[in-house]
Amino acid sequence: MRNTGEAIALLSRENRLCVVNYHRILEAPDPMLESEPDVATFRWQMRLLADCFNVLPLHDALAALDAGQLPPRAICITFDDGYRSVHDLALPILQEFGLPATVFVTSGYIGERNMWNDRIIEAVQSLPPGQLDLSDVGLGAYSLRSLDDRKTTLDELTEASKYLPPKARVGLIERLEALVGEGLAHGLMLRQDMVVNLDRKGVEIGAHTISHPILTSLDDGDARFEIRGGKEELEAILGKPVRLFAYPNGKIGKDFDMRHVDMVREAGFSAAFTTAVGAITRDQNRFQLPRSRPWDSSPFLFGFRLLRWLTQSPP
Ligand SMILES: [Zn+2]
Q: How far, in Å, from the CA of 209 to the mean position of ligand 1?
């Protein structure tokens, strides 16, 4: 793979940068959370990156790209939202392989209860089998008979909630949690001391707003408050500038637009990241940089997809 990468680097005019993005790391595989890697999967992925690619700190990689000094097969590792598992499970593996990383932390959830999407996951995981009737909160009926039904229900409820007004979303979550009753796990997110420890161990902390809203659903004043506030709250914890930003949900035109790109620049960030697929080139807008993670379950295909992104033109 390293040789293929070197051959590709020789053929391409300039080296590109691929930024991979993770969210949670799981202790064990979970059929309800198929897109989240467990520790064993994360470990082979990190070993592969350490063996075959040049993994750089994100801020340094962007500076090297600007200076035309980016090495071939350049990769950066990022995590979104600020899950505790980044500290407890990912950090030891990153340290083992000597890999730098960046965590985009949603400041309002530090040490707090779970983010709304995880509250839906936990509730749907815990509901008894059968039919789920949510017509009283403006949604339909859902099946929880088989594992596949439960996964479909989870996907549909998560998708529907993403674009619900905050009050309606809270209404839905509280309804689901009431149906489950007691016993839901809490504490999935980083505590403040863990954020500080990640920073001390060389993991860069980036911002991801205060409460993870879909920015296009807010008026300009609220969007600006979320973008600036997330930065200021993290800077108060760390006592140093927070330089990088990731848009919540991250789809250009849907989750954020040019107003928010301007707000991020005006807030003093030096770069911002979307969830568009592809690699970063030197001439790209620094406030709309793509980020994606290969979904392949075999190391060869995972590495090969990264190499392909490193050579593909951005869409
Ligand atoms: Zn996020």
A: 9
